[in-house]
Design goal:
- This protein is an alpha/beta fold.
- The protein has a single domain, classed as Aldolase class I (TIM Barrel, Alpha-Beta Barrel).
- Helix content is about 30%, strand content about 20%.
- The strands form 2 sheets. The chain has a 10-stranded mixed β-sheet with strand order 7-6-5-4-3-2-1-8-9-10.
- Strand 11 and strand 12 form a beta hairpin.
- Helix 1 runs parallel beside helix 2.
- The longest helix is centred in the middle third of the chain and has 14 residues.
- It starts with 5 loop residues before the first strand and ends in a 7-residue tail after the last strand.
Length: about 290
């Protein structure tokens, strides 16, 4: 079994949002289409199961549809993690058949809370995106909330909002609740004003779980999130985030033995495998796992 089941391919740094908690790449140039296609091919040839096209916002990249189609043709499960601002009916009509899951961020159950960390209008954009996805029952939907001091009290309201949305979505809906992680490429983030304590996160979880919900909720703490991801950055380099660091291991296409390289890092392969087994178009969702 390959050590990496799921690759996060950050195809661009471009994004309509400037979230202080974001640990996506910033200000990194993009490889061209031919190189990006080679990266997708290498991910598939590694024996990996899934590619998550992310960023920044992958829909900011003009060739994202070509990359999605190529990945699906190679037999990879395809997830697209987007802010939702650029998602259109036309895009879903053309490429939805190649996509297994679309992930959308939701920072609040109202525009007032959402706009504390997202741009004004983002809440409405996500609601519109959910309406569009309701027309594509073969595409699973994941809503993700990074929990910060700005929205921890609102997470129960988001869960109730998603109860209503789940009834309108013909496909599967999952809700990921992240404890915002003190890791960012922005050195000026004031994490003391951002990070929720373990106790407050647990109290919020208990409040949400006090009511039944018609969708699976995945609880992702700091411990869960650490040493979990293998990323290909927009410039084609391989990065493994550990603690507060982004550790770079050179150009992904130049690595001859990825498994051997990762064995020499702090990447937690067993945790990654367990995490990645939680969701599959074919196998459904395992208990308490993340449809990443």
């Amino acid at each position: 079994m390959p050590s990496v089941a799921t690759f996060d391919f950050h195809v661009t740094s471009e994004c309509s949002q400037e979230c202080a908690y974001c640990w996506g790449p910033q200000g990194i140039p993009e490889v061209d289409t031919a190189t990006a296609l080679e990266i997708v091919t290498k991910i598939a040839s590694h024996g990996s199961r899934r590619v998550v096209f992310t960023g920044g916002d992958p829909l900011q990249r003009a060739d994202i549809g070509e990359l999605i189609r190529h990945a699906a043709t190679l037999g990879l499960e395809v997830a697209v993690s987007t802010t939702g601002d650029k998602l259109t009916a036309e895009f879903l009509d053309e490429f939805g058949g190649f996509i297994d899951l679309v992930s959308l961020p939701l920072d609040g159950a109202s525009e007032a809370v959402s706009s504390r960390t997202k741009t004004e209008g983002h809440f409405a954009a996500v609601m519109t995106a959910l309406d569009l996805l309701a027309e594509h029952p073969d595409v699973d939907v994941k809503v993700a909330t990074p929990v910060t001091k700005h929205n921890v009290d609102d997470v129960p309201n988001i869960a109730r909002l998603l109860d209503d949305r789940a009834e309108r979505l013909p496909g599967r809906l999952f809700y990921n609740v992240f404890q915002a992680f003190p890791r960012s490429m922005d050195p000026d983030v004031d994490w003391t004003a951002m990070v929720v304590s373990d106790a407050d996160y647990a109290a919020m979880r208990n409040q949400v779980e006090a009511s039944p919900h018609g969708f699976r909720i995945n609880w992702l703490t700091h411990e869960t999130l650490d040493k979990l991801y293998v990323m290909v950055f927009p410039d084609g380099s391989l990065t493994v985030p550990v603690g507060t660091e982004f550790r770079n291991y050179g150009m992904f296409l130049d690595i001859d033995d990825l498994d051997e390289l990762l064995r020499r890092t702090d990447f937690d392969a067993p945790k990654h495998q367990l995490h990645s087994q939680g969701w599959s178009r074919l196998e459904g969702l395992g208990a308490d796992q993340d449809p990443h």
